[in-house]
Amino acid sequence: MIITILAFIFVISLLIVAHEFGHFIMAKWFGVQVLSFAIGYGPKLFSFYWGETELSIRLLPLGGFVKMGGMEGNVIEGYEESNIPPEKRFDHKPLWQRSLIVAAGPIMNIILSIVLLFIVFSIAGIPAGNLKVQEVVPGGPADRAGISAGDIILAVNGKDASNLDEVVNIISSHPGEEIILTVKRGEEEIRIKVIPEWSETEGRALIQVVFGIENKKLNPFSTLFYSARTTISWFVITALGLLYIILGKIPAEMAGPLGIAQIAGQAAQLGFLNLLMFSAIVSVSLAFFNLLPIPILDGGYLLLFLYEKIRGKPLEPEKVGWVYLIGIILIFSLAIFVTYQDIMRIVTGR
C-alpha cells in the first residue's frame, strides 16, 4: 500500500511539475507576470515567493495551475490584477504568444516522455536484438527437447528468427510435427528438434516457452531518436483509441487517479525503470487529454483562440463563463465515469 501511494505521488507530481513548468517558462519567456505556480489544489501546505511568483504545494495532489496576470477565465481562484502593467498581462499579448503559452504544457509532457524513455533505454537498452527464450515451462515440449532459458533463437526450420510473429506462426502451424530450432547457447550454435503440441485453450500449437527480445544499447543519438519515435507512436495510438471509442469499435476503458495509483504501484514493484516507463506512458496520455477541445483544458483555450482568430475579436466575457461551465460539467462527468471504472476494476480484480 505504501509503495502504491509513493509511486502514485511520484508519477503525478512529476507529470504536473513538467506540465505547469511548460506554461510557466513560456509565460516568462514572453514577459507575462506569473502570480503563482501551484502543485495540487486546495489549502496550501507550503509556499514561498520566488521573485514575483508564489510557489506552493497544496493538499490535493491531483493537478496544478499557473496563475498569470490577465489570464481571463481562470476558474480555480478569482483574483484581480489592477496593478499589473499592460505589457505583463496575458490578455494583452499577441494571439500566437498566448497560444504557445497554453500549448507549452502538453508539449512539455511530450518532452518529459521522451526524456524518461531516453533514460530507460540508455540503461536497459532498446528491444531490437535477437529472439531470446525467457522462460521454459517444465515438462513442456521445449523442456523435453532440451531448450533452456537464455537460449537465443537464430532460426526456425532454416528461416531467420528475427521476426517474433513469423516464429510464432511457424510453431503454431506445425502441431505434432517436428521443427528444427537453430539455437545459440553461449558461444555454441546448436540445432534442436522439438514437436509443438496443440493447446485447446490457446487454439494453436505451442512449445511452451516465453519469448522475449534481447535489448541492445545504442549510441545516444539513436536512443534519443527511438525515444522520440516511441513517444509519437504512443500519442497516435492514444488518438486512435479515442476515435475507436467514439465510433463504438472498442469499449470505453479509461483509468482515473485510482487506476493510475494501482498500476503505478505494480510498476514500482517491478523496479524503478518500469515506474519511469509507466510515467512516460501517462505523460503522453496527459498531453493528449489536455489538448482535447474541452473548456478549462488547454485545448479549450486553443479553441477559443482559434475562434478569436477567425472572428477577429475574442468571445464576450459572459459567454466565456457559460463555456467554462460546460467544460466543468464535462470534466466532472468524466471524473465520475473513470472513478467508477477504477472502483469496478479494483472490486472485480481485473
Poorly predicted tracts of residues: 73-80
Mean pLDDT: 82
- The amount of beta strand, in percent, is 15-25%
Gyration radius, in Å: 26 Å
Head-to-tail CA distance between termini? 18 Å
Number of domains: 2
Number of helices: 9
Percentage of residues in helical conformation? 40-55%
How many DSSP E strands? 10
**What is the chain-wise order of helices and strands?**
HEEHEHEEHEEEEEHHHHH
**Major sheet:** 6 strands, antiparallel
The global form is: elongated
Instruction: Specify the structural class.
Output: alpha+beta
What is the gist of this entry?
With 350 residues, this protein is an alpha+beta fold. The chain contains nine helices and ten strands.
Task: State the main characteristics.
single chain; 350 residues; alpha+beta; Pdz3 Domain; 6-stranded antiparallel sheet; two-stranded antiparallel sheet; 9 helices; elongated
Question: Helix and strand layout, with pairings?
Answer:
Elements: H1 2-29, E1 34-50, E2 53-68, H2 95-124, E3 126-136, H3 141-145, E4 152-156, E5 159-160, H4 164-172, E6 179-185, E7 188-194, E8 197-199, E9 204-206, E10 209-216, H5 220-246, H6 257-269, H7 272-290, H8 298-311, H9 317-348
Helix pairs in contact: 1-2, 1-6, 1-7, 2-5, 2-7, 2-8, 5-7, 6-7, 6-9
